[in-house]
Amino acid sequence: MIFEGLLAIIIFAFVPVAIKFTAATPLTICLFRLLIAVSVLALFWRKKIDFKGFIRFGNGNYQLWLIGVIFFLHWVTYAYGVKFGGASIGTLGLSTYGMQLVVASILFLDHKITKKDILCLCLSMVGILMIIPSWNFNNESTKGLILSLLSATCFALLPIMHRKSQNFSLETRIFAQFFGALVGFSFFITKTHWNLQKSDWFSLIFLGVFGTLIAHSLWARVSAKALPLHSGLAYYSIAPIAIVISHFFLGESFNQLQFGGCLVVIVAALINIVL
Predict the structure, then answer these.
(1) How far, in Å, CA of 32 to CA of 157, rounded?
(2) How far apart are CA 8 and CA 92, in angstroms?
(3) What is the Cα–Cα distance from 151 to 26, expressed in whole angstroms?
(4) Sign of dihedral through CA atoms 186, 28, 155, 44?
């Protein structure tokens, strides 16, 4: 289980690096990954997925499509966030997911806010303010951070929707994420570009096979067996690993203030899990 967890974390850390590295557009990247994910899941889970739930009226089937819409927004904002701001900025923006999940739980699940929640939320906001490269919103890195924060917001809404749609099987709900997002991206198929170099195709294959199917499958197995504390700590180790990888592979770096902001965001996430 330790090996599977480490492998999943390393793959996840390479995902934003691969997104930034390839010349493929965000729409092309997302559509390619989703085509692989939907095809494989539809094949292997064909007896577990309630396909009729996507077309019949009533029984809350709109929830499946809502999950897909949210996942579509999560992926498209993250892909563009990484392209604009870089792998490091994208990863750090997404790492606020835990704090945003607290807010979403308060709003939609009647979660009672604690002093620890307030402390972590305040720390996260301070860290984000320190990371912002420029208050000029035409700045590419600033755009990337804003989009990554929006991606984290959508990511935080996903478990809320899963919890509210438990009348469907887990396999059906997971498939709904990918299938609904695929339908969304199909409207932009004319905006995709497939005239790519060999290195770009390698990146797409890595993102589709390893970054989508293998990493998520491994993480599902690990998180199901490990204690929430351990899996939570492991998840937040993705951010510093991705920052190191992006520095050596893409030449990305932070100034001292931004580096301090990175530490504040990560510390806030750890406090939220450990204490």
Answers:
(1) 24
(2) 18
(3) 14
(4) positive
Contact 53, 61 (CB under 8 A): yes
Quick check: 96 pLDDT over 80? yes
- In order, the DSSP letters of 225-261 are HS-HHHHHHHHHTHHHHHHHHHHHHH-----HHHHHH
Q: And the tokens for 20?
A: 């930034």
Q: What is the pLDDT of residues 210-233, one digit of tens each?
A: 998 888 778 767 765 766 556 666
Instruction: Retrieve residue 10's tokens.
Output: 């390393």
DSSP letter string, 146-168: HHHHHHHHHHHHHHHHHHHTTTS
pLDDT, tens digit, 9 for 90 and up, residues 102-136: 888 888 887 788 888 888 888 888 888 888 877 77
Token pair for residue 271? 């406090």
Q: How far is CA 251 from the centre of its chain?
A: 23
* Tokens standing for residue 102: 């607290």
The distance of Cα 66 from the centroid of its chain, to the nearest Å, equals 17
Residue 274: C-alpha distances to residues 3, 121, 222 (Å): 23, 15, 18
